[in-house]
Specification:
heterodimer, A: about 110 residues, mainly beta, six-stranded mixed sheet, globular, B: mainly beta, seven-stranded mixed sheet, about 0% helix
Chain lengths: ~110, ~120
C-alpha cells in the first residue's frame, strides 16, 4: 500500500458538523503536510506538522501527529459548504521524497 | 492565484501531435516539480528540478521531456502520447533544504486529453 493513505475515502456531513480525516504511513518522516484540492484544480497547502510536534492548529483546522502509530488526523470544525473538496496528506521523508496519498473526498451538505 | 501559473488550462491533442505545457513561479523557490494526477490514483511525481538542475526522473516514458531554462520556468514537452496519458498535470514549486521540504505551492494544472 502507499506511503500516506487517507481514511475514509469519502465523507459526507451536514454543514456545521466536524469532519475528521486520517492518514497512515509506513516509514519515518521529517514532516507531514495536508492539502486541499477543489475539483479539477491544483492542491492548496493547508498545514505542515513536523515530526517532533504532536498537534497544530490553523483557524478551523486541527492536525495531530502520532509518530509511534505512524498516523495523523485532520479535523475541520464547524464545516461549511465551501470546505467541500478532496483532502490529501503528504509525507516528507527527506531528500525530496514527498509522497501523496489518494485523498479523502469530503462533501459538506448545506 | 497561488504564485505558480500553468498554461494552458486545457489541452486536447492527437497521438501524433507535439505540444508543450508551461509553468512559471515568481515565489523565489529553489525547486520545481511536475506531477501527474489520474483518477483514483495517488499523485505521481514525474520530474524534480533543484536550482534548474534535474535531480529526479521518476521512470517517466521518454515521450515526456522536461525543460527548465531557469529557476522560475518549467516546461513539459509532449510528443506521441497515448490515450492513457490523459490526466491532470500539475506543476509545483517549493523552498527546500537538502533534506527538508517546506511544503509545495501548486499551479491550477493542465487538463490533458489525448485522442
Amino acid at each position: 500500500s502507499q506511503q500516506g493513505e487517507e481514511d475514509p475515502q469519502a465523507l459526507s456531513i451536514q454543514e456545521g458538523e466536524n469532519a475528521t480525516m486520517n492518514c497512515s504511513y509506513k516509514t519515518s518522516i521529517n514532516n507531514l503536510q495536508w492539502y486541499r484540492q477543489n475539483s479539477g484544480r491544483g492542491l492548496v497547502h493547508l498545514i505542515l506538522i513536523r515530526s517532533n510536534e504532536r498537534e497544530k492548529h490553523s483557524g478551523r483546522l486541527r492536525v495531530t501527529l502520532d509518530t509511534s502509530k505512524k498516523s495523523s488526523s485532520l479535523l475541520i470544525t464547524a464545516s461549511r459548504a465551501a470546505d467541500t473538496a478532496s483532502y490529501f496528506c503528504a509525507t516528507d521523508r527527506g531528500y525530496q521524497k514527498v509522497t501523496f496519498g489518494t485523498g479523502t473526498k469530503l462533501q459538506v451538505i448545506p | 492565484e497561488t504564485g505558480v501559473t500553468q498554461t494552458p488550462r486545457h489541452l486536447v491533442m492527437g497521438m501524433t501531435n507535439k505540444k508543450s505545457l508551461k509553468c512559471e513561479q515568481h515565489l523565489g523557490h529553489n525547486a520545481m516539480y511536475w506531477y501527474k494526477q489520474s483518477a483514483k490514483k495517488p499523485l505521481e511525481l514525474m520530474f524534480v528540478y533543484n536550482f534548474k538542475e534535474q535531480t529526479e526522473n521518476n521512470s517517466v516514458p521518454s515521450r515526456f521531456s522536461p525543460e527548465c531554462p531557469n529557476s522560475s520556468h518549467l516546461f513539459l514537452h509532449l510528443h506521441t502520447l497515448q490515450p492513457e496519458d490523459s490526466a491532470l498535470y500539475l506543476c509545483a514549486s517549493s523552498q527546500n533544504t537538502d533534506t527538508y521540504n517546506y511544503g509545495y505551492t501548486f499551479g491550477s494544472g493542465t487538463r490533458l486529453t489525448v485522442v
